[in-house]
Known about the structure:
The chain is α+β, with helices and mostly antiparallel strands. The protein has helices at about 1-10, 50-60, 90-105, 135-155, and strands at about 10, 15-20, 35-40, 45-50, 70, 85, 105-110, 120-125, 125-135. About 35% of the residues lie in helices and about 25% in strands.
Amino acid sequence: MQKEISSILEYNPLTGIIFNKSTGNFLSLLEDGWVCFKSPITQKQTKMKMNKLCFSLGYSEDVEKNQKVIHKNLDETDFRLNNLACLDPDDYKIYKEALKNLQGGIKLTPHPKDIGAYRLSWFSGGIKKTRLVEDIVVAKRLETRLKLKYSKILSRYTVSD
C-alpha cells in the first residue's frame, strides 16, 4: 500500500506537509487528524490518519493496523518526521496511561467525611485506584512519587523542544 500511496503523494519530512503529485494541492486535515485523497489510477477515495500516513511515507514502510503513531512533542498538529514514533499496542497502552495520569488523572482530594484524611486516586492498568491517607505530608509525598513515576514513563516516548 505504501508504494501506491508514494506514487500519488509527496511528503516533506522537514515541514510535515503532504501534497498530491498530480494536482499539486496540499492535503488538508479533516476532523481528528484524518485526511482523504483519491488515487488517479483507481479513482478510489482513501481515508487515513495523517500521522500514520506521514510515518509511512517518511520511512517507506507500512504501519500495521494494531500499531499507533504518536507525536513525540505531544503537539497533534506537528507532522514532521522527527516528531513521529510508532508504538506497538503494549507500549501505546503504557504511554496513554502515563499521559492520562499526568493530565489530571492523579488527584489528591480531602475525604468527604473524615476531616483529617485525604483520598489519592490515579489510573493503573486501566483501573482507577484509590488510596486513603491519614496525613497530608504522606499524601503529598505519594502524589509526588506517582507524578515522578509517570513522568519517567512518558519521557521514554516524548521529547521536549
